[in-house]
Each structure stands twice: as structure tokens, then as C-alpha cells.
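Entry 14. Ran structure prediction on the chain below.
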Amino acid sequence: MNAPYYLVGGTESILPGVKVWDIQRSFTRVISSYLPNNPIVWVGLDEVRNGLSAQVNCAKNALGPNAFVVSLSTLYFSDADREVSCTRIVDADFNSLGLAARPPSEDLSQQVKSIIAEAKGRPIIVVDDTLFHGQTIIFLKELGLPIHAAVEYFSAKNAVKTLEALGVQIFTVCTLDDYLDVMPLHDFLPIMPLCGKLLGEAKAEGLQYCGFGTDLSMSVPYIMPYISATMVGSWASIPWEYARDFSAFALTQSMILVERMNQVGMYTVADVKRRQPHRVSIPFLEGSTDEDNVLLSDVIRRAVHMSFCL
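Output, C-alpha cells:
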């Protein structure tokens, strides 16, 4: 069998009163048409949550019931003692800068210090949805967090070997030997919480996100016109020759989603921030607004307009 492409339910699944199952199914169908030789595997949000909960119990059975549980993604696992609020940041040229705190959280070193103080020597279990390379866990260990075990839904086989060599036990639902990609659907929907990578810059005091005010950041969704066709291929494993068509499809689905969100009282970015707990960003395009009262429909319309200018 050829390498599977995993499409995972994300923040679109938690919009209160908004139907999304047909949109999720449409993305699975469309991606299948671009990758006819690769199985497209849909994994729903509840499936990930249930799988992680079961594996956390396994980890606690191994390390002891008093183990201290730290979540790296409260979307997928919220029943933790503490959270490390972190994300990967790219610069204005979309080069990776590394890991930094999600706005408006305190910096990562301070988060780690607080967790160590609260854990008081108990074994620490870190929970996340996907283990690609192990760099996040390695970075947190370098900051001083003594991680005894990691619980993941997806775990790349090579990353498991890397972390086990460092003394970290891995508990996982799905070990990935040969896979094309694992993508949360919200990365293709520009107005969704947690969409895309955060835009930031490296300063003397460390990595800082680019944004407006204390909690309004700028994000880079995984579609055109926010990134190039080539980058859609490298970031999302969609063949570059289909990038424009796929991006037009994603923007159309985003507009359908916006219309449904309007029906339940979510008209602006600020409305979305008030209705759910996760990071909401302004998708970055040249001349992006710095106001969170921007209409969601205007965000998508501007992206559509910019697409015609490419």
C-alpha cells in the first residue's frame, strides 16, 4: 500500500452549533482526487481525544498514578495538570524560526520553571497529537523539563527511536512507518482557531510573534494566496500543480463555513475569540487589518481577491 495521508479533525469541529461534517468529507474527497495513489485517512477530533485519553491511562499505569500530565495541545487533550502553550514560528519569508510561546502566554522557559515547581519531583508525561521528529520534546528537555514519557496519537517510527534513546517512554495510538503527511483540517481554513503557522521574528530577547496588541497574532495558512504553490506542496503535501485549484476549493469551503458561523452569531474575529478557548489569528496578507472586529467574510473575500492577482 502507498503511503497514507492523514487528515485530522481540528478546531472546525468545536464551533458551537455549526455543521461541519460535510465540509470535512469534501476535503477528504478533493484531496483524494489529487493523490489517487495514496489512501486519504480521515481521523475525527473525538477519535484523537479518546485515543490520547486511553494512552495517558497506560502511561500512568507504567509511571504511577501520581504522574504529572502536561498537554501541548488542549484541543486534543485538555484533562492535564498543566499546559505548555507553544507553537512553531516562521519569519516574513516563511523560514522556520523555531518554537515559541503562543500569544499571550508567558515565555517557554518560564512555563517550564512553573511546571517543575508544581510537579514537585513527580514523573512528567507530555501529551501531544503528533510526534514527527521529536524536536519539541527535545527542546523542552533542553529548557530543563524532565520528561519521562510522551503520549501521542501519531508517532513517526524514527522519532520514537530518537526519544527512546534519550530515555523518554513513548505511548502512541498509531505508529507511522511510511506516511505522506498528517494534517489538521483547520490549517486549510484561514478563519479557524489555530490555523497555520504564526508569523514572528528573532530578537535579542528571543523569538517573538508578530501581531497587534497582546493577543492578536498573525498566521500563515497552508494555502494560496498566503503561500506559494510550491510551499503548499512542501507544507501540506498537496502536489504543487494542484495548489491553486485546492486553495480555491479551501477558500470556497471557508466562505460556506463563515456563512454558517454568521447564523450562530459569529461575524468577526473577535466573536470567534469569545466563543472558544484557542488562539485566533489574522491570516497574513500585505496590508492585513490590525483590528479583531474585521468581518470573517471580508478576510476570505480579500484572500479570494488576492488569488486573482497572483
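The chain has nine helices and 15 strands. Will compare against last week's run tomorrow.
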